[in-house]
Write a structure and sequence with these properties.
Elements: H1 10-24, H2 29-35, E1 40-49, E2 55-64, E3 72-79, H3 84-100, E4 106-113, H4 121-134, E5 144-148, H5 154-168, H6 189-208, E6 216-220, H7 224-235, E7 239-244, E8 249-251, H8 258-268, E9 278-280, H9 282-286, E10 292-295, H10 304-309, E11 314-316, H11 325-333, E12 337-339, H12 341-344, H13 347-361, H14 367-392, H15 396-415
Bound molecules: nicotinamide-adenine-dinucleotide.
């Protein structure tokens, strides 16, 4: 892909945020110099024997941004739009995300340029296994621990663990997180990102004096993160008035029956035709009067123009990078409270960390224990970021980067790098 600009290219975007916070924190120039690049990147060709007997090669990447605080950690994405700078940028995002919730990890990310919907189940399994073989020298429980991301799931992680374990000759559950519970996955992992979103929304609402009872919520992207956030926010008393997926947006001013919408999406594969709701375009939905907007779909949804029309008081970034830098500026100028992605959606990687800890200890926790520990981590991270934002008089995104970059810079100093 060659059309990405500094407003949409994740690598350039995160470099810009990094530079900005290094300046705000008055850090030695060497911190930016070291962190602005990706430590290690691998590009691989992944040949797959297709069902018709032909062979097709797919391009895959794995990037490790840092291992200053621990092994690299980050998901694997299967998408036709994957490109190297995206993978590198997302690996940097993972560094700052894991550091903001104080996990002993660095940042990693992987991707394969493929539309998985065009593959049969057998072809998808071969692709998953061959990709993990291709990057096997780069990953490991002490080195780099992948997980699911867009269009990859627990089953795909199961195939990948199996393939990796064949190479080592013994079972290595700690090499990948987000795997099925029956293969050493953690209870609570699949809901963890949405749960983290709901926890940070609850904390932010207290700070801005927003009563969640009856608060109106709009959710863009009704997949794992968006739908779980919706269900949990409804449990906290909020009213979900609109939701969208890649095909349609649905709206009911009096509130959607969120659990019924989740069932409808599961049964039909789409929100389209959900009873008791009006259809809107994505643009109309993002401009609805509401209290809380949860972008939980893809990158670059809230650009300058859309950000100017948003009517929410609070934005909870369930997705990675849903706001462009110019959109971010508009939201700040308009005084909208944004819970930035690296904090808001860090619940997923936090429970991935719990999964890894359980794998290394071979001792498994109850779902209640997982959720309690997630609650503690998310609240502590939210408070730390909020304090930083007050101390320096900056927005929550700058503050989140400042908390993580400061933590990493301290570790660099202890290592004698700066
Ligand atoms: P998913 O595939 O389960 O859901 C994505 C949803 O977004 C789908 O319903 C899809 O139809 C919808 N969508 C796609 N394009 C859209 C558009 N233009 N407008 C409206 N909806 C659209 O994915 P997910 O796991 O829920 O991830 C969503 C976002 O959250 C991604 O940015 C991902 O990187 C991020 N994230 C996910 C996790 C996790 O644990 N799953 C953790 C951290 C961050």
């Amino acid at each position: 892909m060659t059309t990405a600009t500094e407003l949409t290219n994740p690598y350039l975007i995160v470099q810009k945020y990094l530079k900005d916070v290094c300046d705000k924190l008055d850090l030695p120039p060497s911190v930016y110099e070291i962190l602005k690049e990706t430590k290690r990147v691998m590009e691989v060709s992944v040949p797959v024997k297709m069902d018709d007997g032909s062979v097709k090669s797919f391009i895959g990447y794995r990037a490790q941004h840092t291992d200053i605080l621990g092994p690299a950690k980050g998901g694997i994405r299967f998408h036709p739009g994957v490109y190297l700078d995206e993978v590198k940028g997302l690996s940097m995002w993972m560094t700052f995300k894991t550091a903001v919730v104080n996990l002993p990890y660095g940042g990693g990310k992987g991707g394969v340029v493929v539309n998985p919907r065009e593959l049969s189940r057998n072809e998808l399994e071969q692709l998953s296994r061959n990709y993990i073989r291709a990057i096997s020298t780069m990953i490991g429980p002490e080195l780099d621990i992948p997980a699911p991301d867009v269009n990859t799931n627990a089953q795909i992680m199961g195939w990948m663990i199996d393939e990796y374990s064949k190479l080592t000759g013994y079972n290595v559950p700690g090499v990948i997180t987000g795997k099925p519970v029956g293969l050493g996955g953690s209870l609570g992992r699949s809901e963890a990102t949405g749960r983290g979103v709901a926890i940070t929304v609850r904390e932010a609402a207290k700070k801005i004096g927003l009563d969640l009872k009856g608060a109106k919520v709009v959710i863009q992207g009704f997949g794992n993160v968006g739908s779980t956030s919706g269900v949990l926010l409804a449990e906290l008393g909020a009213t979900i008035i609109a939701a969208s997926d890649s095909r349609s947006a649905i709206y009911n001013a009096g509130g959607l029956d969120i659990k019924a919408a989740v069932r409808h999406k599961k049964e039909t594969g789409a929100l389209l035709d959900f009873l008791g709701a009006t259809r809107l375009t994505n643009e109309e939905m993002l401009a609805l009067p509401c209290d809380i907007l949860v972008p939980a779909a893809l990158e670059n949804q809230l650009n300058r123009e859309v950000a100017g029309k948003v009517q929410a008081r609070l934005i909870a970034e369930g997705a990675n990078g849903p706001t462009t830098p110019d959109g971010n500026q508009v939201l700040n100028e308009r005084g909208i409270f944004v819970i930035p992605d690296i904090l808001c959606n860090a619940g997923g990687v936090t429970v991935s960390y719990f999964e890894w800890v359980q794998n290394l200890a071979n001792y498994y926790w109850t779902e209640e224990e997982v959720n309690q520990r997630l609650e503690l981590k998310m609240v502590a991270a939210f408070d730390e970021v909020y304090q930083m934002s007050r101390q320096y008089g900056v927005d929550m995104r700058s503050a989140a980067y400042m908390v993580s970059v400061k933590r990493i810079a301290d570790a660099m100093a202890f290592r004698g790098w700066i």
